[in-house]
């Protein structure tokens, strides 16, 4: 079984405003039976990764959860350099997470990687309080082809 996860295309949202942030495209391609959709592409921001790591840690028991790149407020160097270092750190985090069988069994991880649901929507879905099951939410996103079409268009 092979799972490729790439964190790419960092984009600054609300640039120049006090609430600007960077989000990243997460592209997943797999033949693993653990995943509902074999390909997906979503955008997530750093604080959603922080939430995911906290949830994985809460549910994983004694299994160590990989570290995230630091949230540096005093970064020396260019913003682009910081964003690229963070992108690499987020990719390493996800690569380690998807290789871990225990972490892979967490529905929150699957919704994080394979749906565009917000954090509160993911929580509601996992607790059975959303309009769809976890599988339905992932399949709905996969069928809408949101991420996949974008991925195809951006290839040379």
TrEMBL record:
One of its GO terms (cellular component) is endosome. InterPro entries: PX_dom, PX_dom_sf, SNX10/11. PANTHER family: PX DOMAIN-CONTAINING PROTEIN, SORTING NEXIN-11. Residues 2-119 form the PX domain. GO terms for molecular function: phosphatidylinositol phosphate binding. One of its GO terms (biological process) is vesicle organization. It comes from the Eukaryota. It is a peripheral membrane protein. It is found in: Cytoplasm; Endomembrane system; Endosome. Keywords: Cytoplasm, Endosome, Lipid-binding, Membrane, Protein transport, Transport. Gene3D superfamilies: Phox-like domain. Belongs to the sorting nexin family. It comes from Galbula dea. This is SNX11 protein.
């Amino acid at each position: 079984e092979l799972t490729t996860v790439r964190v790419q295309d960092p984009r600054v949202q609300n640039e120049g405003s006090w609430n600007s942030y960077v989000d990243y495209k997460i592209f997943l391609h797999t033949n693993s039976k653990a995943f509902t959709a074999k390909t997906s592409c979503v955008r997530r921001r750093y604080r959603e990764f922080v939430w995911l790591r906290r949830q994985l840690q809460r549910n994983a028991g004694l299994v160590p959860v990989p570290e995230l790149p630091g949230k540096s407020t005093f970064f020396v160097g260019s913003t682009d350099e910081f964003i690229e270092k963070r992108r690499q750190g987020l990719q390493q985090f996800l690569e380690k997470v998807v290789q871990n069988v225990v972490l892979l069994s967490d529905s929150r991880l699957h919704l994080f990687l394979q749906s565009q649901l917000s954090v509160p929507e993911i929580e509601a879905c996992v607790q059975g309080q959303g309009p769809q099951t976890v599988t339905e939410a992932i399949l709905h996103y996969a069928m809408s082809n949101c991420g996949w079409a974008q991925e195809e268009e951006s290839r040379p």
